[in-house]
Design goal:
By secondary structure, the protein is an alpha+beta fold. Among the domains are: 222 residues, Sandwich (Jelly Rolls); 334 residues, Peptidase S8/S53 domain (Rossmann fold); 51 residues, no CATH class. The protein contains 24 helices and 34 strands. The strands form nine sheets. The chain has a seven-stranded parallel β-sheet with strand order 14-16-13-17-18-19-22, sandwiched between helices. Strands 31-29-33-27-1-34 form a six-stranded mixed β-sheet, sandwiched between helices. Strands 2-28-32-30 form a four-stranded antiparallel β-sheet. β17, α9 and β18 form a beta-alpha-beta unit. The longest helix has 24 residues.
């Protein structure tokens, strides 16, 4: 057994440079110039939609009676991102020229709700649009004043039917964002809406209503269709109504072979981590009595320790002891105590989002709960759908509080699964059902395998399910292997190959890090009992002490338990560090199970486009088809995230595999460099293999409501580089941040670069020559900074920042040889960079102004591959770096476990 050693904080000094070039990657061409006649269908569509807009506008103004002032809202769907990052500069021009101020941006900011804030300027929009519509089909719009209209897909007025969306009963209304131009009218309507609802509640026409603390949504209970219609007709500040109901789990299946529970969970340590289980209540059945705490009940039952369904009780059991539940031990010491937060009376029903948020706040502030488990999901998400109001509120909580929630990715509908097996179709076969866009059966479409709300939350951890059930003597049923994603487990809903408003996002507007779930844990398989997990029941009927169950509902608490174990050992770690350690400890798995599915998709597209299978195409046409298809690696990542955590690596370092943790801050528009010194012994010995380094960055951010691209307004990323200067860390950071630094000019510029620079100083050079100059400088910089032949890709490419959706969870790996250690002089530069997006909405502009320091966590795993005898990387790396053992309880734990160190 490897010796279990504590993880270490990396405390080496850092250098800083106040530099960040946001202009790189800005695109000049928005649309491809086409044959003028090709614009005719586009003109006809815009003409039809704008005429309908004028009719809807008149009807909406006529129907209003509850508000004294109006905010006229129109929706424009664009063919390009709505931003100033392209040559059309739509954000600035639509406000200044057309009097249109954005209040909601979705579909990666290609669909925008605008408030008309200047009628005279809006008439200019009308005139310019008609100028384009009526222009000659023989004249290209390129270069004309109306050329900006070619960026529109269609336009419409935001009507009552768009707001109410056929909803009634218990629902949530999303609110538009306010802007300086509409703020006064917005507040007037907000007051009128509140007064209207108070009057309805007073006479019993509605049960209740509440606004969330950030002013982004209204929750309404017991509203009939007439009231919803009246609200939608009158209040312009309402964007859209939604219902949020939990998904129904599969029917109970009981095991009658046991007549009582044969396990007990003991609370041996009152200082153990507490996990808040947000569910349908927890019954303190006999095995759980020592570890379950009454917490909060937001339902009518007012008893968090009563449950009509076993769901929350099963979740609590797995959160408390993790995978040790399946060892068959009769007495288990708890890793965590369980705090019950009851949000549903049964397992299905309406989720009171605002009260859920308030309960989490109360559990944390009043009772100190930091870890939570949420295995209750709502409806699934459409492809590329914006973050939901639920995930927004949870992300906001994580930014403001020291909490981390483990969220189940969600399960496919059980009845659909059964029907898919009873009605054979190639689409229903594993793994075809996960991802086959544009192919449907009468029962299934791959959109129904997308993650469920609020699993898209980015500040928390989303967990998918593997088919493993911890019973080695059993087989899978619907899935192919226990190490593969379970048939029912849901996948990432972001797919940058799918069209938005008739066009595909360019590579610069996507993000390789935009995937969920984050990790996977075993969840059992369906449909046979032998493939499922055996978990506790209530014992009410005398034959239900155990039941069979499967689902991401079980995977999430197993992951939460791992986090609790980390906190028990390292109680001072930040929760983002725990998230980083979890992800950094994961194991990968081959993607070959997806190979046939990807080949079939390529063949299907090839036959559709060219009439022959993929392998008969020319190299050029093969490339065109491949660009339309997600790779095996991408689909696998969309199903399992980074993979399954390895518990030993998560909890401990060993003699030759060391986990270092960086918990620091970085300033806005800065580069930061931290040196990692490499032990001298790695330059000795035979062979060239030396170090394998993997690092995961995690940080939390303040989310932007109603702005899909800028939902995460904070960019932090990192890279590994050569420490090209040794005397000053600040100077090194400056060199790393600036491709025009004197260091490159003095040491690395080529004659070609110098000649182009001289020409540029004498006169303006062509765009082509300037682009070549920039590329040459970048090539020189990357070669100088590379640990290998060139600097590798950053953990996240922000170019162009204005149009790039940003991830707050990133990972990089690098293999470093003996010769490369010599090249860099035994010093690896860990380079961090940080920027905040521009053009933020009102509520985040002040945040960006006053918040200059941003905390982050970086988990590094460093493994010695040298096989040099007689030395331990753990000792040697401490000798040449400033490292501190993360405050831990390893000694006491090892005594308890009788492990000799």
């Amino acid at each position: 057994m490897n010796q279990q050693l504590p993880h270490l904080y990396l405390k080496n000094p850092s250098g800083h440079a106040y530099k960040f070039d946001k202009s790189r990657g800005m695109e000049k061409n928005d649309t491809i110039d086409k044959d003028p006649a090709a614009y005719r269908p586009h003109k006809q569509r815009l003409s039809t939609s704008f005429n309908q807009l004028l009719l809807d506008k008149a009807n909406r103004l006529r129907d209003k009676r509850l508000v004294p002032e109006h905010i006229e809202i129109i929706e424009i769907r664009f063919l390009i991102p709505f931003s100033d990052g392209l040559s059309y500069k739509t954000r600035t021009r639509f406000l200044n020229e057309f009097g249109l101020s954005p209040v909601i941006q979705k579909d990666f900011n290609r669909t925008v709700l605008f408030a008309i804030v200047d009628e005279q300027r809006f008439r200019h929009f009308d005139a310019l649009l008609h100028h384009y519509i009526e222009s000659s089909d023989r004249i290209s719009p390129k270069g004309k004043t109306y050329a900006i209209m070619t960026t529109l897909f269609d336009v419409k007025y935001h009507t009552a039917s768009d707001i109410r969306n056929q909803r009634s009963g218990d629902l949530v209304f999303e609110l538009i964002n306010t802007t300086p131009q509409i703020d006064e009218v917005y507040e007037t309507q907000h007051r009128a809406l509140k007064n209207y609802l108070e009057a309805l509640a007073l006479v019993g026409d509605i049960d209740d209503f509440s606004f969330d603390p950030y002013g982004k949504m209204l929750q309404l209970k017991g509203a009939n269709r007439n009231i919803v219609d009246e609200m939608a007709r009158n209040f312009d500040i309402l964007a859209q109504a939604h219902t949020l109901r939990s998904l129904i789990v599969k029917p109970d299946q009981f095991n009658i072979t046991k007549v009582t529970w044969d396990f007990t969970i003991r609370n041996r340590d009152d200082n153990h981590t507490v996990i808040g289980v947000i569910d349908n209540g927890i019954r303190p059945i006999e095995p759980l009595r020592e570890i379950v705490m009454a917490g909060i009940d937001i339902t009518r039952t007012n008893d968090p320790l009563w449950a009509a369904h076993r769901h929350g009780t099963v979740v609590a059991s797995l959160a408390a002891v993790g995978d040790r539940f399946f060892t068959g031990e009769e007495e288990l010491d708890a890793d965590a105590k369980i705090y019950s937060i009851k949000i549903l009376e049964s397992i299905d029903g309406y989720i009171d989002v605002i009260k859920v948020v308030e309960a989490i706040q109360e559990a944390h502030i009043r009772d100190g709960v930091r870890l939570f488990n949420l295995s209750i999901c709502a409806q699934s998400k459409s492809y590329n759908e914006s973050p939901s109001f639920f995930s927004y509120l949870l992300d906001k909580l994580a930014y403001e509080l020291d909490i981390l929630i483990f969220i189940a990715a969600g399960n496919m509908n059980y009845d659909d699964l059964v029907a898919m097996q009873e009605n054979p179709h190639d689409l229903h076969n594993y793994p075809n059902h996960f991802y086959n866009p544009n192919i449907e059966s009468d029962i299934h479409s791959c959109i129904y395998t997308n993650i469920c709300i609020p699993a898209e939350s980015m500040n928390h951890v989303t967990i998918g399910a593997l088919a493993d059930n911890y019973r080695p003597d059993t087989a899978v049923d619907l899935s192919l292997d226990k190490n593969l994603p379970a048939y029912y487990s849901r996948k990432n809903h972001y797919d940058f190959k799918q069209k938005i408003n008739g066009a595909v996002l360019s590579s610069n507007h996507g993000n390789k890090n935009f995937f969920k779930p984050d990790i996977v844990m075993p969840g059992g398989d369906l449909l046979q009992n032998d493939a499922a997990m055996q978990v506790p029941g209530f014992g009410d009927g005398g034959n239900d002490y155990y039941t069979f169950d499967s689902g991401t509902s079980l995977s999430a608490p197993l992951a939460a338990n791992l986090a609790a174990q980390v906190l028990n050992i390292y109680p001072d770690l930040s929760l983002q560090s725990i998230k980083a350690l979890l992800i950094n400890s994961t194991d990968t798995y081959p993607t070959s199970y997806l190979e046939e599915m990807v080949i079939e998709r390529k063949n299907s597209l090839a036959i559709e486009a060219y009439g022959v299978p993929f392998d008969k195409l020319s190299a050029t046409n093969k490339t065109k088809i491949t660009r339309q298809v997600l790779s095996e690696e991408t689909i696998h990542r969309n199903l399992v995230g980074h993979g399954k955590p390895n518990k030993e690596r998560l909890l401990y370092s060993t003699a030759n595999k060391v986990s270092l943790i960086v918990e620091e801050t970085i300033r806005t528009d800065h580069h930061k460099v931290i040196l990692l010194h490499v032990p001298e012994y790695l330059l000795e010995g035979k062979g060239n293999k030396r170090l394998a380094i993997q690092a995961t960055l995690c940080y939390k951010f303040n989310p932007a409501w109603g702005n899909h691209v800028d939902y995460n307004p904070l960019h932090i990323s990192f890279n590994f580089a050569n420490s090209v200067v040794k005397h000053s860390l600040d100077n090194l950071a400056d060199i790393l941040a600036d491709r025009n630094h004197e260091y490159y000019k003095d040491n690395h510029w080529t004659d070609e670069i110098r000649n182009l620079e001289d020409l540029k100083a004498q006169r303006d050079i062509s765009d082509e020559d300037n682009k070549r100059l920039l590329n040459l400088k970048m090539k020189v910089k990357n070669k100088a900074l590379g640990i290998k032949n060139s600097l590798g890709p950053w953990s996240e490419d922000f170019f162009p920042l204005v149009n790039k959706p940003l991830s707050n969870r990133q990972q990089l790996s690098i293999q470093i040889s003996k010769s490369e250690i010599g090249k860099i002089g035994n010093q690896i530069a860990i380079v961090m960079r940080c920027a905040v997006k521009d053009n933020l909405d009102l509520d985040l502009q002040e945040w960006a102004r006053i918040t200059k320091e941003h905390p982050f966590s970086l988990a590094l795993s460093i493994e010695d591959k040298s096989k040099i005898d007689g030395v331990r990387l753990y000792d040697e790396i401490q000798a040449v770096n400033i490292l501190e053992a993360v405050p831990n309880n390893i000694t006491q734990l090892d005594q308890d476990l009788d492990i000799e160190l």
